[in-house]
Fold this sequence. Notes:
two-stranded parallel sheet, 11 helices, 13 strands, globular, binds UDP-4-deoxy-4-formamido-beta-L-arabinopyranose
Amino acid sequence: MPSSNEKYVLVTGGAGYIGSHTVVELIQEGYTPVVADNCCNATKGKDQRLPESIKRIKQITGKDVLFYEYDLLDKEKLESLFQKYKFFAAIHFAGLKSVTESIQKPMEYYDVNLGATINLIECMKEYGVTRVVFSSSATVYGPPQKLPVDENHQVGKGLTNPYGKTKFFIEEIFRDLAKAETGWHIALLRYFNPVGSHITGLIGEDPQGIPNNLMPYVSQVAIGRLPYLNVYGNDYETHDGTGVRDFIHVVDLAKGHIAALNKMDQTDGCQAFNLGTGTGYSVLEAVAAFEKASGKKVPYKFAPRRPGDLGNVHANPNLALKFLEWRADKTLEDMCVDLWRWQSMNPKGYEITPDPQ
Ligand code: WQD
């Protein structure tokens, strides 16, 4: 039975990559996470009741995670959690997140990502929960007019895919909510490029199918699951012609959510924060850093630019430092060392490789 002195935090999508790393940090900060996840992107191990990522959080923290296999589109199920727990806050990760898939299935992305958010907000209003951290994305900036990108940069212009548009539309929902009603504390965290894994190697990024993103693809080439990397474009206006991104360690990113929770009562309303390092690295620099960290060669071939890709994107992270007293402190080398530890300990991700007969 829930106890009154616990600080319960609803974590939607908490079985996912960034969600699971944030659950670990919540526990270590003294919060009590309650995870609601429909497991559409999660792998279950031998214990079919729990996603493998949630099971392993206990190995890291020693604590059982309160987990509910609920879909946020099922408002009755979601509301039952608000009836059971007096939530201090919500952290909202749940949603579909493939850029390419969103282009093929726009209505599914609008239905799920927006519908889930509206259900969540309606439950929060009904049960008086006024603190929410939203998993947004640098993708809402579209093609940056000025670098580094800061939070005053225009958003919502030149978005090239429905996934990115859902992030922008959800930000707009939160901004309009905070304009209409006082007493809300809303932090929109705009992630740049999350990479890496928890230092134990027990939890990490486990994309379904062929990875869309660079570093999980690189690590799967290194472990032998993929033959070589396609480098999409070497004719960008960058120092080596390949795309430049602001890679941030997933644990730094997770800690950014804790910082936002800890500081959010100091300001009313809705505020966006960049969660990046402020430093950009090119694709070839990231590949070289991974080869050094893993000791593995990563063969690659140059390929045409990927439609919708930008050349150079990196953050101005100073607002988060000023208001959240948060800054990323892990290096690209840390990201690659931790990513390789996860991949080499889990060649097939969370898929349980059967014990050798
Ligand atoms: C990074 C660079 C590619 C794969 C996306 C989403 C964004 C966010 C992070 C969720 C680019 C190059 C990639 C490959 C390559 N996700 N690349 N070969 O596109 O910056 O951002 O993920 O919030 O919303 O848009 O990340 O890792 O896909 O690409 O050369 O096989 O690596 O061209 O320059 P991106 P990415």
